């Protein structure tokens, strides 16, 4: 292999590609071509892994590690390279992280579904171990001593008997000439030797974030760029009838207006279509847009009204649906009558509302396009732009900036496609900036869902039969207009996998047609499924006059691995051998959170109460206890949150704690205020005024996160904190007030005594 | 609050406004209604100040005018004649301000997008209330939204910077 050829040909790592050939010749690029054994990515059903360019070492010892996943706040851009640095035994201070462009050779780059660490932990270790092995071999050869007498030690190789040392930089050139060792010949560090894994480090970008120099999508810039603000049809699928193409030009700084054709359904990630106002700066584009006076033919979605739609969903939820999972014979138990409990739950459409609205810069030139954008999925950007522009995927270069929040919204690159389409039309680089109003009104919303729950209980109040039925417009409808049922991927999320030891169990799903773009938002279907299952469990506990923790453990039953092989259960695309549904782990987080929160042992004042919930999502087990106080006016204060996380091996504990603290706030927003509604097809909310999200004074006062020490394979941490928080909060409100919250947001339930 | 000197109209619909940004004299010529945010970002290239809502609802655009926090997204250039504006890029005077250091120490940011505004707001709060209570921190900071939910660490960082035990 030739390091020079590899680097210059690929030229993807900016730090490396920018240097001259002389320097390049001294670089060392390991080439463990794992393409032929791509089990990791194969398990995810996605593209092939070629991680031969994940790591490079310069002669001065600088280690470059490629981050191929997007940074939206989970610290993945730091944590994955940290794993490689650990196996390399590199000094973290001498590591530079290079953000990858979109390219299938990196393997899967869809930073979504809380699987970055799970999917690439082994690959990163392998990258680091390969490089370390070659450096050690190079040192041994130079000293003419056996390899077994040499070992890596913090950016140097040491000859143990003599104490001689050589730095990684000094060895890079010689190492680059060695054959790349096979994976089977690599030796990995023992856990006791880890420097970074399990200990963690702060974000690589933290200084630039606090001093304002970090580059987010909103900050991307290229020479000759113009700014665009786009008026979309208020109703999805609407067509432009007319607009004033003169008035916007009266605004200083406005250059022209450009029509973007409406999309042909299904929506996928296509530009919505509309009228773009092109200007010299963002403000001028916004002002010009106000003068467009666009008139639309709304089309069939104008019939969408959230009040009516809610009733439809709830009616459907009360009728027999498609069978998802059945154990025993719940129906015949219900037919016998006896003590039967029913409840309906409802969760509305939710918007992501990341702090950075949708934004992208694109430059179309000579049949190729380059974009700089905050995206969770640069390969989806490549595919979408290629399709919209009629060019090859390889002719789309997607630079990934930092993401100012994403939560799933920035997996859908409709806004990037808008910038690309406009750049092609205008023949110059374009920056598309969405307003907050655009963001709230044109989301890919988390589905509105109605759940019907039914249980027959014995004399101790424990279910002998259980039926749960959910109805929601599926994500699939965004890709196929005819899709009306939840798919296995939606239903695995806290529904098919209900973990209870109930002999007669029936899980169903009813149909619902979408009228807006439905997408995935942090923890997705787990939000509404977890809310229903864990709220209903708490209802049954209180009804039976039993302690909710004791009752929950009784529902979970004995420690065991639940076999779901008879059902359509993707298990988040992970094998059930490595990641079984393990009730022992679920019980453990419940028991631990009860202990950590001093459940049943603390004296709570008037108007206070505690609630518990447990949920497994993204292969991680989480139990959460929330303590609230509700005053006479119905004002809810969230005094304390305790949450126990079993995510298997945790690479970056500090970042993980942050994720769960954040999840509690995210869940608070869902309970307190999250609701998107439509009237005559148009979204009624517009900004943080009418789509409020939790502020400091509304957030939990204190969230304590406890991480279970585990050697199980790593699982997700970005999303799994959200699903149990929401019901735990509502269960706490019940404990405090005696009022059950069955519909979100909280404003639908009267809490105050006044 | 310092009174603004009247803007000089140089062309129909345009104004010439003299101000200081991070200690440097600047003269703005353009739409007097343009909010400071877009002047900072699109004209001066100071992109540390963020756009979040455009309506003074989220605080991502917070900068200092004569040392006090303002929302740059709703502050028209016409009101800024002779104003001294400080942004996240200038607040540390070439190094990290103690509040920025406290932010690093407490590992506050997740995505980081709102944090410029949070930090500028916190510095302003501490200038007025050097030893804030929890309630004073709530009052001072509730105009700044963090969708990632870093509030607990923001509170801890403010207390650390103030030398108040958490």
Note down, in words, how this protein is organized.
The complex is a heterodimer of chains A (754) and B (166). Chain A has 3 domains: 3-205, Aldehyde Oxidoreductase, domain 4 (2-Layer Sandwich), CATH 3.30.365.10; 217-299 and 358-433, Aldehyde Oxidoreductase, domain 4 (2-Layer Sandwich), CATH 3.30.365.10; 306-350 and 444-748, Aldehyde Oxidoreductase, domain 4. Chain A is built from 20 helices and 28 strands. A 7-stranded mixed sheet of chain A has the order 9-10-7-17-14-15-16, sandwiched between helices. In chain A, strands 12-20-19-18-13 form a 5-stranded mixed sheet, with helices on both faces. In chain A, a hairpin with a 2-residue loop joins strand 23 and strand 24 (620-630). The model of chain B has no long low-confidence stretch (mean pLDDT 93). The N and C termini of chain B lie far apart (33 Å). In chain B, helix 2 (98-105) packs across helix 5 (151-162). Chain B has 2 domains: 8-86, Beta-grasp domain (Ubiquitin-like (UB roll), Roll), CATH 3.10.20.30; 98-162, [2Fe-2S]-binding domain (DNA polymerase, domain 1, Orthogonal Bundle). Chain B is 30% helix and 18% strand. In chain B, strands 1, 2, 3, 4, 5 and 6 form a 6-stranded mixed sheet that branches. Chain B has helices spanning 36-43, 98-105, 115-128, 134-141, 151-162, and strands at residues 8-11, 14-21, 24-30, 62-65, 68-71, 84-86. The chains are: A alpha+beta (754), B alpha+beta (166). At the A-B interface, helix 8, helix 9 and helix 19 of A face helix 1, helix 2, helix 3, helix 4 and helix 5 of B.
């Amino acid at each position: 292999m030739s390091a020079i050829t590899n680097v210059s040909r690929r030229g993807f790592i900016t730090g490396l590609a920018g240097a001259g050939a002389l320097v390049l010749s001294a670089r060392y690029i390991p080439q463990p071509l794992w393409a032929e054994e791509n089990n990791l990515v194969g398990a995810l059903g996605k593209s092939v892994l070629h991680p031969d360019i994940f790591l490079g070492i310069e002669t001065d010892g600088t280690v470059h590690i490629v981050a191929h996943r997007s940074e939206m706040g989970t610290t993945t851009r730091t944590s994955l390279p940290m794993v490689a640095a650990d196996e390399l035994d590199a000094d973290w201070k001498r590591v530079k992280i290079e953000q990858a462009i979109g390219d299938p050779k990196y393997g899967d780059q869809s930073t979504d579904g809380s699987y970055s660490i799970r999917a690439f932990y082994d690959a990163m270790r392998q990258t680091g171990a390969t490089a370390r092995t070659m450096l050690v071999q190079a040192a041994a050869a130079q000293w003419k001593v056996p390899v077994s007498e040499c070992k890596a030690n913090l950016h140097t190789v040491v000859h143990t008997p003599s104490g001689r040392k050589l730095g990684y930089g000094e060895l890079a050139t010689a190492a680059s000439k060695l054959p790349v060792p096979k994976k089977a010949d690599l030796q990995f560090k023992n856990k006791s030797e880890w420097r970074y894994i399990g200990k963690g480090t702060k974000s690589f970008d933290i200084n630039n974030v606090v001093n304002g120099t970090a580059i987010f999508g909103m900050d991307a810039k290229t020479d000759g760029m113009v700014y665009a603000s786009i008026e979309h049809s208020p109703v999805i699928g609407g067509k432009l009838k007319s607009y004033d193409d003169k008035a916007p030009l009266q605004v200083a700084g406005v250059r022209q207006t450009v029509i973007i054709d409406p999309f042909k359904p299904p929506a996928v990630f296509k530009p919505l279509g509309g009228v773009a106002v092109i200007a010299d700066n963002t403000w001028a584009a916004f002002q010009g847009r106000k003068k467009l006076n666009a008139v639309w033919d709304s089309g069939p979605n104008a019939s969408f009204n959230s009040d009516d739609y809610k009733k439809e969903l709830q009616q459907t939820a009360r009728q027999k649906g498609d069978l998802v999972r059945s154990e025993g014979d719940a129906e015949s138990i219900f037919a016998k009558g006896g003590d039967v409990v029913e409840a309906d739950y409802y969760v509305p459409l939710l918007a992501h509302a990341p702090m950075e609205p949708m934004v992208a810069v694109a430059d179309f030139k000579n049949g190729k396009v380059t974009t700089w954008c905050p995206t969770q999925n640069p390969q989806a950007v490549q595919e979408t732009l290629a399709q919209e522009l009629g060019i090859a995927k390889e002719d789309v270069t997607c630079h990934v900036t930092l993401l100012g929040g994403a939560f799933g919204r920035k997996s859908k690159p409709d806004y990037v496609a808008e910038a690309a389409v406009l750049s092609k039309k205008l023949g110059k680089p374009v920056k598309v900036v969405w307003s907050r109003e655009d963001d709230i009104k044109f989301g890919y919303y988390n589905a509105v869902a109605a759940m019907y729950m039914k249980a027959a209980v014995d004399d101790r109040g424990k279910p002998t039969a259980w039926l749960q039925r959910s109805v929601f417009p599926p994500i699939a409808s965004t890709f196929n207009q005819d899709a009306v049922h939840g798919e296995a991927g939606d239903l695995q999320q806290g529904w098919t996998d209900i973990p209870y030891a109930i002999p007669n169990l029936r899980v169903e799903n009813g149909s619902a047609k979408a009228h807006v773009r439905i997408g995935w938002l942090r923890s997705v279907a787990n939000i509404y499924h977890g809310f229903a299952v864990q709220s209903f469990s708490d209802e049954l506990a209180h009804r039976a006059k039993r302690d909710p923790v004791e009752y929950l453990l009784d529902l979970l039953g004995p420690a065991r691995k639940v076999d779901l092989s008879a059902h359509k259960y993707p298990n988040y695309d992970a094998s059930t051998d490595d990641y079984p549904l393990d009730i022992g782990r679920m019980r453990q987080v419940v028991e631990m959170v009860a202990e950590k929160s001093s459940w049943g042992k603390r004296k709570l004042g008037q108007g206070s109460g505690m609630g518990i919930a447990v949920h497994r999502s993204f292969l991680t087990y989480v139990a959460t206890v929330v303590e609230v106080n509700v005053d006479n006016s119905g004002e809810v204060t969230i005094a304390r949150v305790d949450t126990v996380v079993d995510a298997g091996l945790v690479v970056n504990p500090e970042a993980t704690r942050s994720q769960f603290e954040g999840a509690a706030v995210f869940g608070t927003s869902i309970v307190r205020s999250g609701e998107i509604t439509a009237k005559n097809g148009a979204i009624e909310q517009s900004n943080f005024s009418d789509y409020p999200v939790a502020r400091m004074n509304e957030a939990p006062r204190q969230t304590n996160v406890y991480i279970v020490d585990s050697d199980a394979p790593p699982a997700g941490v970005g999303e799994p904190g959200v699903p149990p928080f929401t019901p735990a909060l509502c269960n706490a409100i019940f404990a405090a007030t005696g009022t059950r919250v069955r519909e979100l947001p909280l404003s639908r339930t009267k809490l105050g005594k006044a | 609050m310092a009174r603004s000197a009247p803007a000089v109209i140089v062309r129909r619909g345009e104004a010439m406004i003299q101000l200081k940004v991070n200690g440097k004299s600047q003269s703005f010529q353009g739409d007097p209604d343009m909010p400071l945010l877009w002047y900072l970002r699109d004209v001066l290239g100071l992109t540390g100040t963020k756009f979040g809502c455009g309506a003074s609802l989220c605080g991502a655009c917070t900068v200092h005018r004569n040392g006090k926090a303002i929302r740059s997204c709703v502050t028209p250039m016409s009101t800024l004649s002779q104003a001294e504006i400080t942004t996240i890029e200038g607040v540390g005077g070439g190094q990290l301000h103690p509040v920025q250091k406290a932010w690093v120490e407490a590992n506050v940011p997740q995505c980081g997008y709102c944090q410029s505004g949070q930090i500028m707001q916190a510095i302003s709060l501490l200038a007025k209330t050097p030893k804030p209570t929890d309630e004073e921190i709530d009052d001072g900071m509730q105009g700044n939204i963090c969708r990632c939910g870093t509030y607990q660490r923001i509170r801890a960082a403010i207390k650390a910077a103030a030398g108040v035990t958490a």
